[in-house]
């Protein structure tokens, strides 16, 4: 037996690999969220969350950003979807001998820009230079802090129903919750694939890499959000399946309601790619109490997420994620088994 690319690709194989080889050895619970819960971040006190991620994107500079943008935004996003304010980070660089200094400067400038925009401080790190063909790998760990927006969100939600969690949890969804996404899907993976493969498509797509805290704080200030995930590896198919499984509900989404650019959809159709399982880097799928869904949607649009949309709802009628297609039929949207485009984040 050997490790496969699929074991780190964000789908079912990766989840199985982590449960069998990592959680089985190291599972622990310090506060509310355990390692075995497999959420985006874990709390190590009642006021702080910790997350970590390693980035291996190829190419390291791409339309709309770089591996540096991904490192700062991606790590901050894993904290923000739990309701925490991204506040502190570590930064570790693994560089290949001979890596271009100008390219490295571009990457570091992107990291500096987004850290300043979010208000994150880089407080520790490490640098290694190696012989093997890695190009550049970046690891960032992040600490998120409890804040007034999270408290407002939880307070509003508890006016409608019991919510026993102190953070926004994957397992917090109940029958009737409305599913919202903040914008168009599959742009990051499409942008990476077009430039990596040198494909000549009539499209000007850029990565959607962005710090979701910038608009989530406004959505939480309205309140009523019961779950949030940023659909990176595995796309919205993976994120929605994780939420459904952990919450013990089904999710029905409408294909025509899911925002996607026409050129991105055509690109996926031509290459036989499933946009629902392709990586995004500035998107959030969230579940919201039905009484607050329209107000949260308005807050997202006011915060610049003009393509935010209601795409479905949670249900107790079944336990899967089900897609209602454009022609009126229904099909199960399964957990992806692997990432169709590797090394995109």
From TrEMBL:
**Which residue intervals define the domain PurM-like N-terminal in the entry?**
46-145
- A GO biological-process term: protein maturation
PurM-like C-terminal domain mapped to chain residues: 175-320
Instruction: Return the similarity comment.
Output: Belongs to the HypE family.
Q: What is this protein called?
A: Hydrogenase expression/formation protein HypE
């Amino acid at each position: 037996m050997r490790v496969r690319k699929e074991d780190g690709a964000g789908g079912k194989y990766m989840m199985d690999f982590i449960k069998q080889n990592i959680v089985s050895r190291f599972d622990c619970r310090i506060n509310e969220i355990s390692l075995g819960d497999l959420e985006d971040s874990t709390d190590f006190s009642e006021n702080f969350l910790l997350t970590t991620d390693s980035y291996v994107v190829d190419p390291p500079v791409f339309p709309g950003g770089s591996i540096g943008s991904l490192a700062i935004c991606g790590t901050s996003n894993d904290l923000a979807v739990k309701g925490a304010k991204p506040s502190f980070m570590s930064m570790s660089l693994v560089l290949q001998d001979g890596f271009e200094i100008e390219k490295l400067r571009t990457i570091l400038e992107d990291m500096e820009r987004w850290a300043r925009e979010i208000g994150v401080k880089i407080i520790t790190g490490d640098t290694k230079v190696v012989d093997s063909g890695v190009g550049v790998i970046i690891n960032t760990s992040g600490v998120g802090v409890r804040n007034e927006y999270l408290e407002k969100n939880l307070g509003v939600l508890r006016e409608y129903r019991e919510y026993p969690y102190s953070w926004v949890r994957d397992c917090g969804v109940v029958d009737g919750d409305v599913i919202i996404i903040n914008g168009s899907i599959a742009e990051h993976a499409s942008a990476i694939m077009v430039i990596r493969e040198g494909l000549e498509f009539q499209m000007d797509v850029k990565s959607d890499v962005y710090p979701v805290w910038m608009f989530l704080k406004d959505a939480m200030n309205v309140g009523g959000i019961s779950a949030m995930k940023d659909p990176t590896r595995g796309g919205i198919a993976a994120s929605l399946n994780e939420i459904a499984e952990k919450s013990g509900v089904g999710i029905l989404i409408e294909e025509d309601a899911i925002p996607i650019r026409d050129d991105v959809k055509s690109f996926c159709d031509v290459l036989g790619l499933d946009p629902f399982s392709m990586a995004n880097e500035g998107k959030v799928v969230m579940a919201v109490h039905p009484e607050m869904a329209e107000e949260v949607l308005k807050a997202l649009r006011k915060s610049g997420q003009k393509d935010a949309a209601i795409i479905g709802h949670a249900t107790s009628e079944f336990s899967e994620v089900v897609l209602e297609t454009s022609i009126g039929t229904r099909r199960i949207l399964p957990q992806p088994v692997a990432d169709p485009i590797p090394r995109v984040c």
